[in-house]
Write a structure and sequence with these properties.
- The complex is a heterodimer of chains A (651) and B (529).
- Chain A is mainly alpha-helical and 651 residues long.
- In chain A, a hairpin with a 2-residue loop joins strand 2 and strand 3.
- Chain A is built from 25 helices and three strands.
- In chain B, the strands form two sheets. Chain B has a three-stranded antiparallel β-sheet with strand order 4-3-5, with no helix packed on it. Chain B has a two-stranded antiparallel sheet with strand order 1-2.
- The longest helix of chain B is centred in the middle third of the chain and has 33 residues.
- Chains A and B meet through helix 24 and helix 25 of A and helix 8, helix 10, helix 11 and helix 13 of B.
- Chain B: InterPro entries: NADH-Q_OxRdtase_suN/2, ND/Mrp_TM.
- Chain B: One of its GO terms (biological process) is ATP synthesis coupled electron transport.
- Chain B: It catalyses: a quinone + NADH + 5 H(+)(in) = a quinol + NAD(+) + 4 H(+)(out).
């Protein structure tokens, strides 16, 4: 613990190649600027430039990674000061980059997956007139996301945080002409604001109580604060994380965000941006690791556990390919949040799951995109089926991602998810049983809905043969071009191998930032948990096979279904809840304020005007035009003046 | 108190009071002598010059007089003693504020005389020839052809101007009273000289005369009581007596009240304003301009002198009462202005509200209060002259079209006039970049620094209310459909153009670069001797 609290003392000045770290931000930002400013003139080569900047950033990130690994473990936390950003009185915000194992891990993930998805988008967006603008937004996103993870203070993080929010908003609403896309973008933006308020308040609290927002100072002094402040900051940070990462109770925007193009869903809403919440909590580990922050961590765990269950349950009921994956994402991020909520026993596992999830979920989304690309953008899984033969590469890569996700032994999900479940059990006592049990149950449900997805899309009968898509065309499924399949293959390789490779070295690599991994042993041994997990996953998959694999599935979703299914189809009434708790009171408040404005404020203003006009009209009658009455008024005034003078003197 | 007596002491040490037998030093009062002398000469012109020469003769004489007095004033100011001096056996105090007021009066009367002298807007001038001849008849036109213009108004103007100049420099109450009558009597006459709407004009003159006489009686009774109290009518003696004597304070405060009422009447401060709308409306517009600008300056010059010299030591007794008067004046001006339908009456109520603002500056008995009030008088005077100059240009077949409904859509027909009038109204409302804003700003600042915060708040509210009726005219001019049989805008001759231009330029200049005028206004305080 002391190791993490004394982090500030260990921060090294960046030197050598690390001094060029600003390139990571500048390259994609430059790409975005050029593409947006050049306009239509860049249409021909825009996608190439957009991809090139991200690939160049990735290459630099790899070099930086090896540069860092060549240092001793204690010297791996470095900072590069760029300039003084805000310097007003006692508030001094420095614009600087923190290069440490945690941020480097994210940088590699963002630029690596980002590069693949840029390449994939060249093919996927080839029919879009505005492909150049799409790449500009993607570049903007990458730049902002890198700022988010590289910034060396909470304000720079907030800058990146809002930047990715903007890029996400622009990309969700990419198909501007469609109502549901515009609505989804607006919804994402608004719900993110709720979380952002939490993050902003947390930053204000830091500035008020600690006097700085730089990581080095905040983490150094957070231990001296009162428990109330620490818990408040912890919970407000969590609120920010909930907004960005689609956690309960702010999870409803993420499935709707699938209205954006599929590469966006894969990059932003599966692999990178939505994990920013996990990054935030992992980054703030010196705060959450404090013994005073126990309550805050419990809240984090509860949010994670509730979310992972919600995601699984709803995922079982949806018929939209990407929305099922989106709820799967919600649920997997729930695992990560649960993991980082466990404290030193779970930070590294949360990041591990984040990385492996980044691979397989991006792969799954790209596979979904590939299917939809070949199927006239059809996303209803009940209208698909039997596509394995038509799209062999997609099928194979997707299946590998699927197996990784459900935790098939020795694929990447097996290592990361099992580790989280084990860590949850090792929390000990009733907490351990509750959180471990939920995580275990979630694994079974995950296997169920993912298997359902696999069967309905790739196996079974080709239900699309006698159907036409909405625009009246017949379906002609075909495999996608190499720019799309290549990233899928690369990600599939990652899905298979990343877990095995990373689970061994990641905890140690991250220890300078997250502290040493604390291994505790719960009531069940790791082996027992591994076996249990695999068994429960197998049961989930088996039930799915039994339900969907052996019977023919209807093309339209059945309407007469049991209550749990109805509830799940309605997002477990999450939208209703939000509407009842926030939207409707908000509307009432608005109406009330409009009423106050109309009647109260306007009434006051108009009333004053009318009052003055009325009194003016009455007083006017005193101006009779008769000298005698004028003289009388003068006399009255004089008597008053003299009387007043004498009263003042003699009173 | 000790400060004042030491000031007195110092003043006595530096410049011993002139012996009574000594011949009066005239250098300081040359401007007054020139104006009053020219007034007498002007009467002779009226009697002796042939009809066709009278108008050019009178105009040249009047303008020359004002210019010569101004030149004399400027040459004297450059070498004048900083603490001021007395003249005419101590009856006139020629100090910095008096000099500033003289300069202001001369400059304003130049503008007013230009308006009065104009014959192009209304052929034959704005003044009556013979009471029996109705305007527009054959006889009327014949008379215009034979005489050009009635010119009695010029000597009257000069006498009034001379009275005003004496009034603001008067060092004792009796001189002040005489000056008051010298300035008032010509004004009563001038009000009744209107060529058009003759009955209204004559009614206004009678009302003004009756009420003015009433107010003079108050003033004189006040002087008598104060004499009874202090044994002297000299301001310095009264001040001394009030500062330290055991005589009856009833005499002092009753006398003070009556005296102040007489002064407030002249300054058109509410509730002693009742004559203002009727007289402003009835009087010929050039005379209204002269009255509104110059009388205000002279009256407030007198008020400032009485309050700051004679009554300074009792300020804690009268201040609260004058607070009330200022509030009443601002509220009456702002509220009653809202429902006026006649432009001249509206400006009259505006002047009542402005009198309230000026009173705020006057009751701040500090150097800042003095200088800010002087500055405000300068700005207000020029804006008012230009405003009435513009009003005199909008005419229909029966003379000036002063009803507001006739001003509807005026901007479409004559955008320049509408723009100028808009600018002047904004200055009256106190919008930045006009002199009105700077004037209000310095007055309110002086009041605030003298601990009159609540009064300033009331003043701000009142000016917000008053802004409504100024802006209403602007809206009327720009956003209303013009009436079918609306008035025409006369192309003004050189005199009126010059007067309006002078007013507008100074309004703009003092709004943008007020520093030099503020420096003049704050170059010295009243001499107490």
């Amino acid at each position: 613990m002391t190791g993490t609290i004394n982090l500030a003392a260990e921060v090294q000045q960046a030197s050598g190649i690390a001094n060029l770290a600003w390139l990571l931000l500048a390259l994609p930002a430059l790409g975005a600027a050029v593409l947006l400013i050049a306009g239509r003139r860049a249409d021909k080569w825009g996608h190439l430039l957009g991809s090139a900047t991200v690939i160049a950033a990735f290459v630099y990130a790899v070099l930086l990674f090896f540069d860092t690994t060549s240092l001793a473990a204690d010297d791996r936390t470095r900072e590069a000061h760029l300039f003084d950003w805000i310097s007003i009185h006692s508030l001094n915000v420095e614009f600087g980059l923190r290069i440490d194992p945690l941020s480097l891990t994210f940088v590699l993930l963002i630029t690596g997956v980002g590069s693949l998805i840029h390449i994939y988008s060249i093919g996927y967006m080839s029919d879009d007139r505005d492909r150049r603008r799409f790449f500009a937004y993607l570049n903007l996103f990458v730049s902002a996301m890198l700022l988010l993870v590289l910034g060396n203070g909470f304000v720079t993080l907030y800058f990146g945080w809002e930047g990715v929010g903007l890029a996400s908003y622009l990309l969700i609403g990419w198909y501007q002409g469609k109502d549901f896309a515009a609505t989804a973008a607006k919804k994402a933006f608004l719900m993110n604001r709720v979380g952002d308020v939490g993050l902003a308040l947390a930053i204000f609290l830091m500035f008020k109580n600690i006097g700085s927002t730089q990581y080095s100072v905040v983490f150094d002094k957070i231990g001296e604060q009162s428990t109330g402040v620490i818990v408040a900051i912890g919970i407000l940070l969590l609120l920010g994380a909930c907004g960005k990462s689609g956690q309960f109770p702010l999870q409803a925007w993420l499935p709707d965000a699938m209205a954006g193009p599929t590469p966006v869903s894969a990059l932003i809403h599966a692999a990178t941006m939505v994990t920013a919440g996990v990054y935030l909590i992992a980054r703030s580990n010196p705060l959450y690791s404090l013994p005073q922050a126990e309550d805050a961590r419990l809240v984090v765990m509860i949010v994670g556990a509730v979310t992972l269950l919600i995601g699984c349950v709803i995922g079982c009921a949806y018929d939209d390919f990407k929305k099922v994956l989106a709820y799967s994402t919600v649920s997997q991020i729930g695992y990560m949040i649960l993991a980082v909520g466990l404290g030193p026993a779970g930070y590294a596992f949360g990041i591990l799951h984040l990385l492996t999830h980044g691979f397989f979920k991006a792969g799954l989304f790209l596979g979904a995109g590939s299917v939809m690309h070949g199927m006239n953008d059809e996303g209803d899984i009940r209208r698909l089926g039997g596509l394995a033969r038509k799209m062999p590469i997609t099928f194979i890569t997707w299946t590998l991602g699927y197996l990784a996700l459900i935790g098939f032994p020795f694929l990447s999900g097996y290592f990361s998810k099992d580790a989280i479940i084990a860590a949850a059990f090792s929390e000990g006592g009733s907490r351990g049983w509750v959180f471990g049990g939920i995580a275990l149950l979630g694994a079974g449900l995950t296997a169920f809905y993912m298997t359902r997805l696999l069967i309905l899309v790739f196996l079974g009968k080709p239900r699309w043969e006698n159907l036409k898509s909405e625009d009246g065309r017949a379906y002609h499924p075909h495999e996608s071009g190499w720019t799309m399949t290549l990233p899928m293959i690369v990600l599939a390789v990652g899905s298979v191998g990343a877990g095995a490779v990373l689970s061994g070295m990641l905890p140690e690599w991250l220890s300078p930032t997250l502290g040493e991994l604390v291994e505790e042993h719960g009531p069940l041994s790791h082996t027992v948990i591994a076996i249990l997990t695999v068994a429960i996953s197998a049961i989930g998959a088996g039930i799915a096979f039994a339900l969907f694999g052996r019977r023919e599935q209807p093309v339209t979703r059945p309407q007469r279904v049991s209550f749990p299914v109805r509830a799940a189809r309605a997002d477990l009434y999450g939208n209703h809840l939000n509407e009842a708790l926030f939207a409707r009171p908000g509307v009432w408040l608005t109406r009330f304020l409009v009423f106050v404005d109309n009647r109260g404020v306007d009434g006051l203003v108009n009333g004053i005007a009318a009052g003055l006009g009325g009194s003016s009209g009455r007083l006017r009658r005193l101006q009779t035009g008769f000298v005698r009455s004028y003289a009388l008024s003068m006399l009255g005034g004089s008597i008053l003046v003299i009387a007043a003078l004498l009263m003042v003197r003699f009173a | 108190m000790s400060v004042m007596s030491s000031v007195l002491l110092l003043a006595q040490e530096q410049a011993p009071a002139p012996a009574r037998a000594e011949a009066p030093p005239l250098t300081a009062i040359w401007p007054i002598l020139i104006v009053l002398g020219a007034a007498c000469l002007s009467v002779l012109f009226e009697a002796l010059l042939p009809k066709h020469l009278r108008w050019p003769g009178q105009v040249v004489l009047t303008l020359l007089t004002i210019v010569a007095a101004g030149v004399k004033l400027v040459t004297y100011v450059s070498g004048a003693p900083a603490a001021g001096e007395t003249a005419m056996f101590g009856t006139l105090a020629v100090d910095r504020p008096a000099l500033f007021l003289w300069g202001t009066l001369l400059a304003l009367s130049l503008g007013a005389v230009l308006l009065i002298a104009d014959r192009s807007v209304e052929p034959g001038g704005a003044f009556v020839a013979t009471a029996a001849i109705r305007p527009g008849t054959v006889q009327d036109r014949a008379q215009v052809g034979s005489t050009g213009m009635q010119t009695e108004v010029f000597p009257l103007t000069l006498f009034a101007l001379g009275g005003m100049m004496v009034f603001c420099a008067a060092n004792d109450l009796l001189t002040m009273f005489v000056a008051l009558e010298v300035l008032s009597l010509p004004l009563y006459l001038m009000c009744g000289l209107a060529r058009r709407r003759r009955l209204l004009s004559q009614e206004a003159a009678v009302k003004y005369f009756l009420l003015g006489a009433f107010a003079s009686a108050f003033f004189l009774y006040g002087v008598a009581l104060l004499y009874g109290y202090a044994g002297s009518v000299r301001l310095a003696d009264i001040s001394e007596a009030a500062a330290g004597s055991d005589r009856s304070d009833t005499l002092l405060f009753a006398g003070m009240g009556l005296l102040v009422v007489g002064l407030l009447f002249k300054a058109a401060v509410g509730p002693f304003h009742t004559w203002t709308p009727d007289v402003y409306q009835g009087a010929p517009t050039p005379v209204t301009a002269f009255m509104a600008a110059c009388t205000k300056v002279a009256a407030f010059g007198g008020i400032l002198r009485v309050l700051q010299v004679a009554l300074e030591s009792t300020q804690w007794e009268w201040r609260g009462v004058l607070w009330g008067v200022a509030i009443v004046s601002m509220v009456i001006g702002a509220v009653l202005g809202l429902t006026q339908t006649d432009v001249k009456r509206m400006i009259a109520y505006s002047s009542v509200a402005h009198a309230g603002f000026l009173l705020i500056g006057s009751i701040a008995v500090t150097e800042k209060g003095l200088s800010s009030t002087l500055f405000y008088l300068l700005t207000y005077g020029f804006t008012t002259i230009a405003t009435f100059g513009v009003i005199s240009l909008v005419r229909d077949s029966s003379g000036e079209a002063t009803h507001l409904s006739q001003w509807a859509g005026l901007a479409k027909r004559s955008p320049l006039l509408a723009a100028v009038f808009t600018f002047l109204l904004l200055a009256l409302a106190g919008i930045p970049l006009t002199s009105g804003f700077v004037g209000k700003f310095v007055v309110f600042e002086a009041a605030l620094s003298d601990g009159m915060g609540p009064l300033v708040v009331v003043a701000l509210v009142a000016s917000a209310v008053a802004a409504f009726f100024y802006l209403r005219v602007i809206v009327l001019m720009y956003f209303s459909e013009p009436a079918a049989d609306g008035p025409t805008v006369t192309v003004p001759g050189a005199f009126t153009t010059a007067a309006i231009t002078l007013g507008v330029i100074i309004t703009l200049l003092l709004g943008i670069a007020p520093a030099f005028a503020l420096d003049w206004a704050s170059s010295g305080v009243f001499a107490i001797r």
